[in-house]
Write a structure and sequence with these properties.
Structural class: mainly beta
Strand content: over 45%
Helix content: under 10%
Number of helices: 0
Shape: globular
Length: about 120
């Protein structure tokens, strides 16, 4: 049974930090690209960051470049999103996603599995 379980969300102050984790199980983690996406209140789903299966290639939406870092730990089958210098505009439900054979992480439709999401709220 495939599972992606996010954790680490919560309330942070503007300028603060949070680290999200996504624990994967039920599939061969090393063969999948992983991404984080978010959905702010009243808005559509937005891709935020992606990391290819090899772990050396990472990609970010412009609005988080220099503030967020995506990484993966193959030994723990876990992908992380370190979020620094948080802004109120980062408030959203954050989802992790796994995609087999994904080369362009920005295209959300190609992901095979999704987590249930974790809420991040940034107060100004």
């Amino acid at each position: 049974q495939v599972q992606l379980v996010e954790s680490g969300g919560g309330l942070a102050q503007s300028g603060g930090s949070l680290r999200l984790s996504c624990a994967a199980s039920g599939f061969t983690f090393n063969n999948y690209a992983m991404s984080w996406a978010r959905q702010a209140p009243g808005k559509g789903l937005e891709w935020v960051a992606g990391i290819l299966s090899g772990g050396s290639d990472t990609y970010y939406v412009d609005s988080v470049k220099g503030r967020f870092t995506i990484s993966r730990d193959s030994a723990k089958n876990t992908v992380y999103l370190q979020m620094n210098s948080l802004k109120s505009s980062d408030t959203a439900v954050y989802y992790c996603a796994a995609g087999f054979g994904v080369r362009s992480t920005v295209i959300l439709a190609q992901y095979d599995y999704w987590g249930q999401g974790t809420q991040v709220t940034v107060s100004s």
